[in-house]
Amino acid sequence: MLTDRIEREIVISAPPQRVWQVLTEAEHISGWFGDATEIDLRPGGAIVFTWSKHGSHHGVVARVEPPRLFSFRWARPAGEPATEGNSTLVEFTLSPDGAGTRLRMVETGFAGLQVSDEDKGVAVKENTEGWIAELGELREYAERPAA
Amino acid sequence: MTLRPGPDPRGVLAAMADPTRGRLLAELATGGAATATTLAARLPVTRQAVVKHLRVLALAGLVTRSREGREVRYEVRTGPLTSAADWLAGLAAEWDLRLAAIKRIAELG
User: Fold this and answer.
1) Domains by residue range for chain B, with CATH
2) Distance CA A72, CA B88 (A)
């Protein structure tokens, strides 16, 4: 059945301290999320992820416990401040794995995203084509040979 | 390189977040079309509650209604569910790409 969370895990051949930098430092974040990042790394601190093509998404730092736990909320709609009703929570957990790091990502809160009453009836129908386009774009990207 | 977060099937996920509605959909999917009375007999909830939950599922496009005599029959529509699952799978695949990028950057040291 459908769940309200995405869980992913990867093992990285670098110590947690190094992975922590990649996760939390603006210059590194831009390498895996968006094209430019501003981040105020403390609970409640502001984040702005900017995609040159698609605009800026605002976020708020939730938990900062180096080098074990980093979480933030990010607003799904571009240009809006992150609130409970428009954002999901992304939580990274780092644990040592030999000389490397086991990195776990859990994103939750999709079901809590607010839907206006008028949206409720039409959202599904209207969005179907959008998702198909997104997935096509994703597949194309994934199948491209790594640079 | 990162994909734009696309439109999302919020109505479907919000509708599915309730366990009773999940049960109702499962009943309709496995037992076929049914009336609120039949469904209430199979689940530990009142007919009134079943009707309320079916209304939410209908709004999300997850069930359709048709008249049968004096009662309304509900039938599951799997399309929106599949689309929502695909959407989540797409988001998960985006995370795989992001985690792979994190790994690459971290291992470059």
Assistant:
1) 10-108 (1.10.10.10)
2) 19
